[in-house]
Amino acid sequence: MNVNSTNSTNYTNPYDMYKYYTRIGGLASGLDTDSIIQGLMSVEKTKYNKLYQQKQLLEWQRQDYMDMASAISSFKDYVFNLKLSSNFVKYKTSGEAVDSGYVSVTGTANALEGNYQIKIEQLATQANAVVNDLTVITKDDQNNVKLKVELTIGSSTVTKTIELTWNPGDSTSTFGANLAKSINDAFSSDGGLKAYYDSTLNKLIIASQKTGSNVSFTVKDVNNNYAQIASGTGTDARIYIKDSFNNESLITSTTNTINVYGMSITLNKATLDVQGSAQYKSFSISKDVDTIVNNIKDFINKYNELVSKIYNKITEKRNRDYLPLTEEQKSQMKDTDIQKWEEAAKKGLLYGDSILSSFLDNMRNYLYKQVPGVPSNLDTISEAGIETYSYFESKEGKIYIKDEAKLRDAIANNFDAFVKLFTSSGDDTKSIDDDGILQRFYSLANDTLKKIYDKAGKPYFTNTYDPNSSIGKQLRGIIDQMNAEQERLQKVEDRYYRQFTQLEQLIAQMNTQSSWLSQQFSGR
């Protein structure tokens, strides 16, 4: 019976196999042969049990590494998302244009804060057409319909031939639904054109998926000398915008999203009055200091959770009086006692771990190290009002906002420097010294995860071990020894049973001779 799993829940006592053997001992001698042999074997099993405990400790240690790797990986993903300008840099907008739903405004990292006015004369529209009477479409002698559909987007034209049968028994609604499906199937690969038949209105509606005056289509009847059945052309959006200095600009766009002054503006409806004339509507954009501060607070919480978890793990001492239980030991204990014992046995397996200790030290170091290229009054996190708790308040090295007013001032009045402090990326790809805080943490997490995976294996090895990892190689060696020891133990136990069988046979012979002698003497 070979050991082929590193999952302790799959462990099988190598001596359970023998309980299925029919061995009847002690018939002649009266000895409890099984108990005697199991007592002898308990001494022989000492080496195997030590190997099993070593294997179990390595499996538990690997799981601890995986738990730490999971926490670091989650923090790495969080940092990656936060350092994106769209997540780190937040703006707020207000004014009639926004509040009344005429536009939706999102500020980018370079948004020009201020007051604006916008006048939307028309939105960009899709090319569309409605066919009110499908009976104008010609059928050939075989009741076949053949249409040529051309879709033009800019300088590119796509031509599709639509062929289907209009059976004499099919109603107009049935044919209309089939025609809409045929058009959709023809353009399914690019999705450039969509058709829909409304059976209530008895109308076929065709529309392009893109907007703008550079989008058009035609539908022609091939059976009727390419007579045009339908056509449509999109329109451009037409917008006027005034900046804070009342400078007016006219913008035409093939889409209903424009990018101007560092803002992404989505046009929702035209700013028309009751007479149908376009009017200016105002809006303003400014840094959302409250949201940015909350993001920093969330970052601090995530950082503190991680350093606390790692610190507790690498400072948790091991109690060597608690070793993994063998199956024989577990059989003599209650489930609750087993659980408590194993909880104690699992502690301290990463005590003083060099990988995690180094990661923690680097996190603390690079948190406060100056960021090059940032003004000296905001090139460290402490200049933004963030400090570390004293050792007596937090041995883990947690951080907190010591001066929120200072943090808010940095965001409101030195925003570019504040953003660079956290999100900048240096030119030197081999060093993280020139990076901002979030980029440093991201790189440190990546490097640490690689070291953990080299040591304990990749995370996708869930039910077994990574044979290329350091722990995996140790486990392979131990498992090989366990398999060899199992074979040796089986041979030893077989030898004991053979010896006791011989003893039983000798005693049985002696008993037979004794009985014969007794009969001889009693016969005189």
Structure characterization notes:
It comes from Caldicellulosiruptor diazotrophicus. InterPro entries: FliD, FliD_C, FliD_N. This protein has helices spanning 33-44, 46-83, 85-88, 96-99, 172-186, 289-315, 327-331, 335-345, 354-368, 404-413, 415-423, 437-456, 470-522; strands at 91-94, 103-107, 114-122, 126-131, 144-153, 156-165, 193-198, 203-211, 215-221, 227-233, 237-242, 248-253, 257-260, 263-267, 281-287, 386-388, 399-401. Helix 1 packs antiparallel against helix 13 (470-522), helix 2 (46-83) runs antiparallel to helix 6 (289-315) and helix 9 packs antiparallel against helix 12. The longest helix has 53 residues, at 470-522. It has 13 helices and 17 strands. It has a 5-stranded antiparallel beta sheet with strand order 1-15-3-11-12. Strands 6-5-9-10 form a 4-stranded antiparallel beta sheet, covered by helices on one side. Strands 2-14-13 form a 3-stranded antiparallel beta sheet.
